[in-house]
Amino acid sequence: MSSRNNGAWGRAVPPADADRTLSVAEMIGSCPNIEKMWAGVDEIGIDEHASFAYGQFWFDAVRPSVFTSGCRFRYLHDIPVSGIYQASIFVGMLTAGRHAANVEGRSIATDRIGVPTLIALGEPMRFTTHFRAGQTCDMSGFFIEAEGLAPLLDDLQLAPLPCCRCGLQFRQFERAERLRTALLDLAVNPYTGALGRLYAEARILAAVFEIATGLDSAQSACPTLSRLRREQAERAQAMLESALADPPTIGQIARDIGVNETTLRRSFKQVFGVTIIDYLRDRRLDVARTLLRENRLTVAQIAYRVGFASPANFATAYRRRFGHPPRAELRAP
Prior knowledge:
Keywords: DNA-binding, Transcription, Transcription regulation. With about 325 residues, the chain is of the alpha+beta class.
């Protein structure tokens, strides 16, 4: 279903058998973070009865102004769109496809599966995007309206988040296992009714705490790299992310970027807190964990898809990282 649902109380990600054709009107009427929406960038009125995607999206109340939220879209047409986002916070993870948009000229696009992502707007802002026929976007997480954040922070005895006072904050948390676990647990909420609401609220509080801690750490850290070295490390990361299953060698990355291997290795570890090899392994395992929890592929298929040489090597690495074998993530049909 696509709704701003005050009765579902933080349910898990809805099953695919509820997917259906969705209209623009449903999205505008149901999404509390979208104030206005137009066709193209020139504020041309959009046909709100037109279909734009097959799938579903949801905003299910957990407490006032706090919702579990997400989408599962397969876009049906090529439609350029613009509009106004309300001041708000979304925290979630992409599980398939790609999310693409620009806010006030800044990209908030991602195709990084299983990486916790924060999109925070301190004030209403103009966005643009382009729905492309056949493209998919599956995300799940939670959404907080501006007035809902302060009570959450009060419950956690935290100061206001610096990212939410004004402007736009778009951040991805590569090394945030507790945050990732909270979001994964939220997506598979096993309860309904009041117990489901309490379960969802606990996971959202845990996620907000991890984000606040991560932002504080980032702000207090003293940058020791030049802008050039940081950009080189980020380019290396992007190259790895675009080819996790069959990545270029570190030497190839260094040559493409125009830096020697030793400098690249050192810069990468300073920026991301982990070596290039460890980063690649962990990201493969993160993607694998998301795929396992979707329950669509076998363990062996997932092992090869994310780039492991054999299911046995994958199982060993998975157990070492998460403390249990990959089969433990599979749900009985």
